[in-house]
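Quick illustration for those who missed Monday's session on complexes.
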Amino acid sequence: MFQRLTLIGAGLIGSSIARVARERRDLAAEVVVTDRSAAVLDRVAALGFADRIEPDTARAAVGADCVMLCAPVGTYAAIAAAVAPHLAPCAIVTDVGSTKVSVIRDVGPLLPPDVHFVPAHPLAGTEYSGPDAGFSTLFEGRWCLLTPPDGTSPAATERVAEFWRRAGSMVELMEAVHHDRVVAVVSHLPHLIAFTICSTADDLATEGESAAASRSEVLKFAASGFRDFTRIASSDPVMWRDVFLNNREALLEMLARFTEDTQAMARAVRWGDAAYIEDRIGRGRQIRRGLIEAKQA
Ligand code: NAP
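Prediction with NAP bound:
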C-alpha cells in the first residue's frame, strides 16, 4: 500500500502497526520508526519490528508516502510542525489518536496544501503501553474510525481505509464531532470512572483511624468488580491525560449525564425502589449480551 510508512511513536499502537506491517508485506515496503525516547528506540531495535530506526522526527518523515502519528494526542501539534517542511508532495499524514476534533484542529493547519490528511482512530487497545506491549493481531476484528475533514481527497481516505482493512479492522467514516461524543461514552467516560474508583478506594484505605479498609485489605479482598476496574485504571497516565484534556467538552457532557444517573440510582437505593434498581442492572446485562453476539466482548 505504501512504499515508506513512517510511524512516529513506538508504543502499544505504533509497535502493533509496525508488527502487522512487517508480517503482511502488502501494507508497506519499508517501515521507518521514530520515537522521542532513546530507550524506546533501543527496545525497537532489540524487538526487530522496524526496517529503519530514525531518532530525528523530521528526518524520519523524509521520503515517506505515509506518515502516521502514534504518540499521545497532546504532542501532535509539535510533531506536525516538525515534520511539515519535510513531507513529500502528495504524502498521506494520518494518525491513531483517540480524539479527533483536537487532532484536526492541531495538525490540519500546519500541513502543506499538497499533503493529504486523513485522521483515524483504531478502537483497539489494551491497558499496557510501550513497544513490548504491541502485537500484530491487535486490530483484528476491531473497528477503525476515519474522520476526514470536508475536502479530503476520497482516494487518500480510501487508501487509509484499505490499510486498516488489511490490518484486520472494519472501517467506518464518521464526522469528527460525532466521533468524539461516541468515544466519550464508550471509552473515555469508563476510563475516567475506573481511575476515579481506584483513587477513591485508595483514599478510603489511607484515612488513618477512620479508614474504611486498610490498603492491604483492599488488595487482599478485591473481588471481581474492583479488580476489573483496576485493569482499566492501569492504563498509561500521559496518554489518558491527553485524551481527557483534548475531548473536554464531550467528556464533561457525558460525565454530567452519568452523574445525574448515579444520583437517580442513589435515590432508588435510599427509597428502596427495587424495580428501578433491577431495571438498571438488567440493562447492563443486555448490553453485555449484545457485545458478545457482535463478537466485540
Ligand atoms: P504508548 O504505548 O504510551 O506509546 C506512546 C509512545 O509515543 C511512547 O513511546 C512515547 O515515548 C512516544 N512519544 C511521546 N511523545 C512523542 C513525541 N513528541 N515524538 C515521538 N514519540 C513520542 O501509547 P499508545 O497506547 O500506543 O497510544 C498512542 C496513541 O494511540 C495515542 O494518541 C492514543 O490516544 C492512541 N490510542 C491508544 C489506544 C490504547 O488503548 N492504548 C487505543 C487507540 C488509540 P515516551 O514513552 O518517552 O513518552
